Amino acid sequence: MSVIEQKNSTQVIGLQNIPTKNLKPNPHNPRLLFDEEDMKVLRDSIKKVGILVPLTVYKDSKTGDFTILDGQRRWTCAKELNLDSIPANEVAEPTLVWNIITMFQIHKLRMDWELMPTALKLELLINEVKDKNVHRLSVLTSLNESLISRCMKLLSFPRKFQDLMLDPDPKKRINSDFFIELYPILHDRNVNSFPWFKKRQLHDHVTVAMLKKYEVKGIKSITDFRIVKQYINNAVKAKKKKEISKLFKEFTDEPSLTPDYLNIESARTASNATKLTQDVDKLLVRLKNIDTEQYYGQNKLWEKLEKLSIIIRDVLKKLGRGNEL
After folding, report:
1. Is residue 62 part of a domain?
2. What is the chain's alpha carbon radius of gyration, rounded to the nearest angstrom?
3. How far apart are CA 96 and CA 114, in angstroms?
4. In a shared domain, residues 90 and 199
5. CATH number, domain with residue 48
6. How far apart are CA 133 and CA 143, in angstroms?
7. What DSSP line would sit under 176-207, residue for residue?
């Protein structure tokens, strides 16, 4: 039976009260970070009414201890409150792969985790099942394909950057979205063809530079990376690749420079002209195919077209191209 076919096949052994000291956290729990404020709320609740929802555990065949599949936060609070025992549902001991899959399935409808811990457990699963196919991993873990793709992007960063997303202090922790938004720039075909940017060799340098820029507000929002990429694309389309390469290097090296530093006016004009041309083409097609009898009574439409006609004539005359109108 395949791993996918085994889904939802965990055998339940029964409910019991287990000594708190006999429980241990699951080493494959994708949720590694627990913010203290949330823990305090849970701890206060348990102190008042006890643990209302039993944990889910299995007995480790090697140590004899019970390993937690679901309920690590409740167990942590129980230890801090010196509770002697905890109610728990025991299930059969899973395989390594099934352990990870079960953890994903148990927690998938809970409050969103930090994404980096999830990515690390996904990496472990990928190594075990020898499969990187996003769709099959989605079926296996019950995580959506978009989230798995985001995890893959995080795993492309070296461990030193991954650790920044795992800082126990929420105030020091770098949000995973920072790296996800930066990823398209680091892997952009144009950027990787810049003479000064050798693929992979300068990825770390640029990542460090962008972190510094984010710290001093050269990048005010992580979505600014989308603007950076757009400016680069506009410049390349306007055949300003050499110029944008130089500007992007200066932008990278100087933390205080903002994305607008990359805004080559001619490139922006060319981009706007392309978009306007596309809009005009769409309008031309619609006007050529319009049934005048069907729209005969739509006075607002004809008034707008008359105004448009006047504007077009005025613009073309300024260009010296409206003499024939």
Report:
1. yes
2. 29
3. 22
4. no
5. 3.90.1530.10
6. 13
7. HHHHHHHHHHHT-HHHHHSTT--TTTTHHHHH
Residues counted in the chain = 325
Q: What share of the chain is helix, strand, coil (3-state, %, to 5)?
A: 55, 10, 35
Check if the beta carbon of residue 58 is closer than 8 Å to that of residue 101.
no
Question: Residue 282: inside a domain, yes or no?
Answer: no
Integer distance in angstroms from the first to the last C-alpha of the chain? 77
Residue 71 φ/ψ region, left for φ over 0, alpha for ψ in the -120 to 50 degree band, beta for the rest: left
Distance in angstroms (rounded) separating the CA atoms of residues 115 and 123: 12
C-alpha pair distances (Å), 179 with each of 14, 24, 37, 124, 157 = 44, 33, 26, 20, 8
- The single residue listed with the structure tokens 């530093």 is 261
- Return d(Cα 52, Cα 82) in angstroms, integer: 17
Total domains, the chain: 3
User: Containing domain of residue 192, as a range?
Assistant: 178-267
Assess whether 23 and 114 both reside in one domain: yes
pLDDT tens per residue across all 325 residues of the chain: 444 444 444 555 678 888 988 888 887 766 656 667 777 888 888 888 888 778 888 888 888 888 888 878 888 888 888 988 888 888 888 887 887 777 776 655 455 567 888 888 889 888 888 888 998 888 777 788 998 999 999 999 999 999 999 888 888 899 999 999 999 999 999 999 998 987 556 889 999 999 999 999 999 999 999 999 999 999 998 899 999 999 999 999 999 999 989 988 866 676 677 788 899 999 999 888 888 888 888 899 899 999 999 999 888 888 777 655 5
Encoded tokens for 93: 């001991």
